[in-house]
Each structure stands twice: as structure tokens, then as C-alpha cells.
Amino acid sequence: MSTFEPIPKTMKAAVIPSTGASLVIRDDEPVPQPEDLLPGECLVKMDCTGVCHTDLHAAKGDWPIPAKTPLIGGHEGVGIVVAIGAHTQDSPVKLGDRVGIKWLADSCLDCESCRKGLEQVCLKGKYSGFTVDGTFSEYVHSYVRHVTPIPDGIGSAEAASILCAGVTVYRAIKYSHCGIGDWIVLPGAGGGLGHLAVQYASAMGLRVLAIDTGADKRDLVMKLGAEKWIDFKETKDLVKDIQDATDGLGPHAAVITAATGKAYEQAIDYLRPGGYLMAVGLPAKASLSADIFFTVTKSISILGSYVGNRQDAREALDIAARGKVKCYFSTKSLSALKETYEGLEKGNIVGRIVLDFKRQ
């Protein structure tokens, strides 16, 4: 093995002891030691980590697939590689490199899904902060072929949110079949994923109709490049208002980042013929109810878009590093994670929250 600096035996970490249990901040969590790393594995010392709605679902255990417990959550981490497992061959990263840890921690890279660029659905996939411990700790055990190099030109705190929220919306827009000048509607536009989607869509030459509620979110998305805005709490007929705002026909695509079943149901009604519904947001318990007659006769396509692969991550980071996308975030300490979860649950967090491990 090779190491960058002395590795402590214990660390600070946020742990969910069991499904539905309260979050516990521990100072004595064991640190994976360099001599225990297998070939292809690495140890990353975290600088910061973003907080995602998925982390809240993992902590509550309210998804159809339960997370492991005890669990260290988190999957938007940026840090420095401080150890690499002995006998690792042709590692794409080296000691001292700044890298990101994403939702997809590892995959086999050899199955049909991986070979076709769908690494994120690999049947042998490991998921940070869900099936393996994640980034809410000072050190994280990871995998050299799946950590993402962070380019120059972007700070670690900003890069953290790009690794999940940015990659997720970038890939969904990329595969939405929209061309330059097409309309795209973004329900949940003022949220953590949504405000990044506004910018990626604008950078790709699309016309953005943002949907959310509240003056703060309106001001944010209009500043970031949205062409039009609808407050879903103020409208009396959301479907009609969306169609009226998009040439009377409806948008060419909808990227649903809102974690509500209602947002999905309405999309079939307001999309123009030939439109694409990109399913991204993951409600805890909801079904997608689509009118079959109009889905067929309007030639509507419904596509699930699940995070992104290694190439998607590099592309999303590159766009942000070149200044085309800016993540709006506030920084807190790891000890503020519980109150952050409460804010996510109430839906009153604008932008993203990033936990800085240097803050106490």
C-alpha cells in the first residue's frame, strides 16, 4: 500500500444506528486503515460533502429498498486521496489527487449495463451512503476507478453538489431529446437539483420554464437563466398556464426533479406532442399514473434517468468548472446535519447545503 500522510485510528462521523433511528454524531468511528485496503481501493480524506434528499430517505428508511444499517450516509464528497491499496494496477488517480465520491461507489465495469454506459444500474453496484458507508465522515473508503477527478477552476464545496445533483440533472437534460431553442419545463426549479437544471438547460441553449413557489426561489431561477416562471401555489390551472407559456403547445420536455407523484401526473397533460418526460425525482411512495390514450396519441416518451455514469460526471464538472453552471450553497458543520434534514423535509432550503469538515 501507499499513503500520503499518517492515518488516524478514529474519526468524526454522522451515523444512523438503525432504520428510522435518530442521527448520532460520533468522534470515535473507526477509520479504514491503509493496510486493509484491497487492490483497486483507496482512502479519501474529506474536505466537504453535500447533503441530498436521498440521504434523508436513507436515514428514514422510507424507500422500497432499505439502506444498510448502521449507516454513514452521504454521496457528494470531495477530498484528497491519502492511501491506495497495495498491488493496485494502473490506478487512474494518485496520492494527493483531489477527487469526488458519487452515489455510485463501484460497479463491475464488465456486465452488459456497464459496457453500455449504464454503470449506475450494474447488478453488482455499490452505492455511497446506502449500501456502503458514505461521505458524512472525515475519511471514506472508496474505489480508484470510480472516484471522479475534480478539475481546476472549481472549488471543492461547489464541486460537491455537482457530483450528484449536477450529474443527475445534466444527464436527464442530455437525454431529453431537446434541441437548441426548445422549451423545457423544470418543476422544483428552485431546489437543490432544480437550480442546477436551470443552468445546465440554459447552457445547452434551451428555453427554461421554471416551476416552484416563493419569491426567493423565483428570484434565484430568473437570475440563473429561466425565461419564464410559474408559482404552482398561485396558479389556478397549472397545465393550461404551462402550455400558454410555451407557444400554446406545451414544452418539448419536462425534467421532474420534484419528489411528488403529482408533478409526474401533470406532465403527461402539459407536454406537447412528441414530448419527453424525464423521471428524476424519487418520492418515497408514489406511482406514475399516465393516461394511456393520450400518452399514445400524443407520442409521449417516459424515460427514467438515474444519476449518471463516470463520463457524465466528468462532463457535468467540466461545464461547471468553465463557469457555465454555479451551485448556490451554504456551508455548515457536520453537526448541523440533523437540522439540515429537517429543512429538507419541510422544503424550505434554497439551493444546496454543503458540510465543511474544517468547521466545528
TrEMBL record:
Residues 20-355 form the Enoyl reductase (ER) domain. One of its GO terms (cellular component) is cytoplasm. It comes from the Eukaryota. InterPro entries: ADH-like_C (IPR013149), ADH-like_N (IPR013154), ER (IPR020843), GroES-like_sf (IPR011032), NAD(P)-bd_dom_sf (IPR036291). Its EC number is 1.1.1.1. Pfam families: ADH_N (PF08240), ADH_zinc_N (PF00107). CDD domains: CAD3. PANTHER family: ALCOHOL DEHYDROGENASE 1-RELATED. This is alcohol dehydrogenase. The lineage of its organism: Eukaryota, Fungi, Dikarya, Basidiomycota, Agaricomycotina.
